[in-house]
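Reply to dn_fold:

You asked what the input looked like. This is it:
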Amino acid sequence: MIRSVLLTTFLFFSIGVMAQSGRKQYDSYKGLVMAGYQGWFNTPDDGANRGWYHYNGHNGFRDGSCSIDMWPDVSEYEKTYQTEFKFADGTPAYTFSSHDESTVNTHFRWMKEYGLDGVFMQRFVGEIKSISGKKHFNKVLTSAMRAANQYERAICVMYDLSGMRSGDEQVLLNDINEVSNDHTLKDRNKNPSYLYHNGKPLVVVWGVGFNDNRRYGLKEAKIIIDGLINRGYSVMLGVPTNWRTLKGDTEPYPELHDLIRKCDIIMPWFVGRYNESGYNRHHKSICEDIKWAKANKVDYAPLAFPGFTWKNMKGINSTQIDRNKGNFLWKQLHGALAAGAEMLYVAMFDEIDEGTAIFKCAKKVPVGKSVFVPIDEELQSDHYLWLVGQSGKMLRKEIPLSKKQPERK
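and this is what came back:
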């Protein structure tokens, strides 16, 4: 009897270990299509005490004052929040909060349903320096880690250096120590969905080498990169578009290339740098970027974005880049793969501030002084999620490489 109980206990334990270790793991960024995940939207009643965060304009979040240019399709959210905005028929418009775990869970469910491999969770150094910012982003990250394992999606921490000052390097390094401890980034049995690359858990550092008068530079970036490497992480570095030539949006310092060579992956920022008619010229740069990266033994993740708009945030004369019913995004996805890309970065999953969101956005939008960009009438609200999923199939050669945007059946 005792032997039988022990045998049964052993079998249950073995099955449990096998089930846990048998969950999908991500050993490399290669072969994956990943998106950036902001997770920074708050509402006054979501419990974060941050008000209409990343929704509000100069005079709150109301008609004529807002910072978002696209409106989310909220038909599938468990929790939504009423706004002062109205649709043409006079009914109130609702939105979501990233603070709600149910919101994050819905997003990761969509990732699985449409074939997006996973996301890079943004942690803004300027935000995590404050108590309220850190609490919010910790909650979103905790929700995302749970959802990533539930839906078997890759997940990775990305530090955005925006808002950082010289001396804040330790803020980031202390934070990754806490995140690693809280979410067992180095224990693949406990956190199987965390993204690894070159045999180590991957951490992204975004915002190095830009020439837009940031309050930190290459010296601070080196401290961060060396600190992450010494802690046993592989590193992806987010750099400006012209990182290779050290011109345009990039600081003219060759030391940037030295930092890049320390890292495992490089991801240049292309958002807003070209429109559909100008992409072909940009494509040549991607081809040259890939050659440089291979020669210097660094992996390369080209970026694609669906369009761009921040009229409500910046004003009527601000930059607008037309989505053209998905053709602009598809041109970039195909172009990157045709150039030999082994991985893709899509900006962004949930960025409705700058109109780069690929998640489900509304075709019917509020009307009034604030002008929102709807999804094209002939498209479904999920079209951009679907396109990104198709690009993943092309990347993995599950379907042929196609220059023409695929048709939905």
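The first strand starts at residue 33 and ends at 37.
Hope that clears it up.
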